[in-house]
UniProtKB/TrEMBL annotation:
UniProt xrefs under InterPro entries: AstE_AspA_cat, Peptidase_M14
Organism of provenance: Pseudoalteromonas xiamenensis
Keyword annotations: Hydrolase, Metal-binding, Plasmid, Zinc
Superkingdom as given in the UniProt entry: Bacteria
Protein name as annotated: M14 family metallocarboxypeptidase
Amino acid sequence: MNNIYPIGTPGEPWQQHHKEMWFSSQVSHRSYFNEVVSKIDELTENFDKVQYGTLDYAQRFPLFILKSKVWDNTKPNVLITGGVHGYETSGVHGALDFLARFGKEYEAKFNLIVAPCISPWGYETINRWNPNAIDPNRSFYSNSPAPEAASFIKYLADSELSFLMHIDLHETTDTDNSEFRPALAARDGKVNHNWNIPDGFYLVGHTQKPQPEFQKAIIEEVQKVTTIAPADSNNELIGVALEQFGVINYDGTKLGLCMGVTNAPYVTTTEVYPDGELSTPENCIAGQVAAIVGALNYVGQLNREVQ
């Protein structure tokens, strides 16, 4: 693979002017307001719409969550996040589609909080980073440099809620190799050696709380609607050892991942592959919805057993 990126000098980390060059090359390809906020508004008959912040870039982007209208403190709280990487389309629309199709059903068992698009600038420009060339999904920690992460962290802190489960919806796309990995290497002055892109759906569990049976239940549900990614010849996915079929683990807290933002005992990140030969936008969204359903069915059964 070609690791040369048109901005910067190979082997030397970007300076501020390089980041400004990168930002100036970005253009909007779609509308957060027309494609996401409009769908959020369609769901307000059944769910409360709450603005938890605003991103003040060249354009102002309001940040929204949808939550259960009737909050019941006897029910467990679950968190669903999408669009932490704005370019990962099915995460955004999977979260919204889940609420539209199944939200009321699962609201009978859980208090739901859904943040469908944490990075709206990234959604519009089809980017992994924010305008400052910062990856929001490496920025979920105190004093975060990413406003996308900082706004959501503040909302969670102010809400003082505990969560039983958190599922964070992502994609792995071919543009990881054509754009993001070369850009990351250029930004950091390094050489990228991992070009693996799994051909199908997989999960990233948290090494501090891996919950293998929880992950397995999600994989089994997703298998009903889309393909699970096979491991490569090294029994790895994206350079990480396979824990079980379709599952690898990261230390979400240490890496500043969104899945590490709460103390929920059951957490996972989904990864859908939209560039497969048999993939369609609808199929990828269905995979995200199935992952949420599988996760909720598992923790719901567990919660009944405890009670």
